[in-house]
Every structure is written in structure tokens, then in C-alpha cells.
Design goal:
120 residues; alpha/beta; Transcription Regulator spoIIAA; 4 helices; 32% strand; SpoIIAA-like_sf; SpoIIAA-like; STAS/SEC14 domain-containing protein; STAS_dom_sf
Length: 120
């Protein structure tokens, strides 16, 4: 499993661990867990620990983009925890492109700070 849920986080936080290649089935599995909470009217926040991400299939990219654009206003914040500099740049770009969700990058030694920020 490339994308898995991290348990024991507050209910309004979708906590994910990403490691390796993401395919369409990973996106389907995660969106099936998120959709009922969106349908219930919850504003959600994402906490993502990215240890190693080697990319995603075209099918995964299309599904993720479609879901994200449809539900952009259902998310408030996203904390990305990673040592990858390009993800830091992507977080900054996301803030510029999508003003409805605040995205912030944290290093692995700032995990506690990231969780505290995404919960605030």
C-alpha cells in the first residue's frame, strides 16, 4: 500500500502516509474514506507524511485532480511533512493557485509542529 491512513488523529484531520508510487486504486481508496465526511458537511484538513514519493500514474493524477477541484472548498488546511524541497515549492505554489486552502510544508523533525498547525 502506497498511501495509507495514519490513525489516532482528530476526526477532522485526514492523516496520510505516502511512500512510493501512487496508482488510481490508492486515490479511489482514500476518496471513499473522505467522501462521507464531506457529504456530512465537514471542513477537513490534511496531514501528509511523505517519506518517499516516486510519482503517480496518469489515472491517479486525473482522479486526484478531479476530486480535488470538485471539493476544494471542503478543505481548510494541508500540512505536508517531508524532506523533499520540491514539495516545499509545491506547497507555496498551491497557496498561490488555491486561496481556499492553506498549505504549509514541514520537515520530518517538525512533525509535532505540523500536526499542531493543521489542528489550529
Amino acid at each position: 500500500m502506497t498511501v495509507k491512513l495514519i490513525t489516532h488523529k482528530p476526526d477532522h484531520i485526514i492523516a496520510l502516509e505516502i511512500d512510493g508510487w501512487i496508482d488510481a486504486e490508492d486515490i479511489d481508496r482514500i476518496t471513499k474514506l473522505i467522501e462521507p465526511r464531506i457529504d456530512a458537511g465537514e471542513k477537513l484538513r490534511i496531514y501528509a507524511e511523505v517519506s518517499s514519493w516516486s510519482g503517480m500514474s496518469l489515472g491517479a493524477f486525473i482522479k486526484d485532480l478531479k476530486f480535488s477541484l470538485q471539493h476544494l472548498n471542503n478543505f481548510e488546511k494541508e500540512a505536508i511533512v517531508s524532506d523533499r524541497k520540491w514539495l516545499e515549492a509545491l506547497a507555496a505554489l498551491s497557496n498561490t493557485l488555491f486561496s481556499s486552502i492553506e498549505v504549509k510544508h514541514f520537515t520530518p523533525d517538525e512533525k509535532d509542529k505540523a500536526l499542531e498547525w493543521v489542528m489550529s
